[in-house]
Design goal:
By secondary structure, this protein is an alpha/beta fold. The protein folds into 3 domains: 4-145 and 225-250 and 360-365, HUPs (Rossmann fold, 3-Layer(aba) Sandwich), CATH 3.40.50; 146-224, no CATH class; 255-356, no CATH class. 41% of the residues lie in helices and 9% in strands. The protein has 15 helices and 7 strands. Helix 6 crosses helix 9 (204-214) and helix 8 (192-202) crosses helix 9 (204-214).
């Protein structure tokens, strides 16, 4: 069988680091190549986490850089090519040029299984490569498969193939129930989400093995593997589990997650950075820009220097306007009010890309 590479991108954030720890601990025989895409604009804490993770893994994390040979840092190189046009939610060239393209160059045409650290409490799919030689797996979720795999497996056109898989996979006493469910066609009243949930309810490991067997008839990389250890994995890891993994491993949580107390109008609040990534990421919440200004003023000033010729990091206001005393006070007050209206578990900061990101910059896991 063709050799399949197993790879995991380290962003410097909590989820990808925890995934590396989790797989190393639970599946030590998986030969995983670790890599990170360096934009040249990361916080120092990101590089520190990568160094500690290398010690835990006992393996070097390959550093990928876009625009090799350029005299400029990767981000600045492409910013120059785009004539100073800053990336935004509507033009995420940073993701494509600094993350996706270096990653796809790194793996080339090899058959690749890419492990992605999207948690079980997140409602997003994450980055799915358009290259057929790259297959994404999500170990922290109940459903480890990418959406394209599930939809292909459950499509009405493949019902016969799915049922054929049930003749090979040991489904025990629930075989008839699996077959009946596999034979039921999708319709407006019975969509693929409902059907797949019911299959998982019958048995997660059995459903995984059905899909794995089905993949033998496809061009997906796992079609070339005789077995896959995560098929029996029924773990679902959420945010609290991630922090526990990091702390108990000794790798530790990136320092920018540590909450810092602030006071405004006699009321106390806490802020921090919610994830890794470029220090000037345009998806930051307003309170995170304030955090950057007050905790890393030199980086905030560097971010301000990029704003020129009508291009700003946020659409509503410039960074110069954002740090006026009255504006900072307003942002902090609004954040305290918002925190008071959320439950204790998610009191301080949501993960930056959890609710507003989507597939495009989910590649920032890399």
């Amino acid at each position: 069988m063709s050799k399949v590479r197993h790879v995991l991108g380290i962003s410097g954030g909590k989820d990808s680091a925890a995934l590396a720890i989790y797989l190393k601990t639970k599946y030590p025989h998986l030969d995983i190549d670790y890599y990170t895409c360096d934009t040249g604009k990361e916080l120092d804490e990101t590089y520190q986490l990568i160094e500690r993770l290398e010690v835990f893994l006992g393996k070097k994390i390959t550093l990928l850089k876009a625009a090799e040979g350029s005299h400029l840092p990767p981000f600045d190189h492409f910013l120059s090519l785009y004539s100073g046009y800053l990336p935004s939610s509507n033009a995420r060239w940073c993701t494509k040029k600094l993350k996706l393209e270096p990653f796809e160059k790194y793996v080339g045409s090899a058959l690749v299984v890419s492990y992605v650290g999207i948690r079980g409490d997140e409602d997003r799919e994450g980055y799915i490569s358009q290259k057929t030689n790259i297959q994404s797996i999500f170990p922290f979720r109940r459903n480890i498969w990418s959406e394209d795999v599930v939809m292909k497996f459950l499509s009405n056109a493949n019902i016969a193939s799915a049922i054929a898989s049930s003749e090979i996979v040991d489904l025990g006493r629930r075989k008839d129930r699996f077959v009946d469910l596999l034979a039921k066609p999708l319709s407006g009243a019975f969509n693929y989400t409902t059907k797949f949930t019911q299959l998982l309810d019958l048995g997660t490991a059995e459903t995984n093995r059905l899909i794995f067997q089905f993949l033998k008839s496809t061009a997906y990389p796992l079609a070339h593997e005789s077995d896959f250890p995560l098929l029996d994995n029924e773990d679902v890891l959420v945010r609290d589990d991630i922090f526990k993994l990091l702390e108990e491993s000794g790798v530790g949580v990136p320092a920018y997650y540590n909450k810092t107390e602030f006071d405004v109008n006699g009321k106390k609040g806490e802020y921090a950075r919610s994830r890794s990534g470029c220090f000037f990421c345009f998806f930051q919440q307003k309170i995170e820009w304030v955090w950057l200004y007050e905790q890393h003023p030199e980086l905030y000033m560097k971010a301000m220097e990029y704003e020129k010729e009508g291009y700003t990091w946020t659409q509503e206001e410039s960074l110069a306007d954002l740090i006026s005393p009255t504006r900072i006070q307003q942002i902090k007050s609004d954040f305290i009010k918002k925190a008071a209206n959320t439950n204790k578990r998610n009191r301080y900061l949501i993960d930056l890309f959890d609710d507003e990101e989507g597939v495009g910059c989910a590649a920032c896991f890399i």
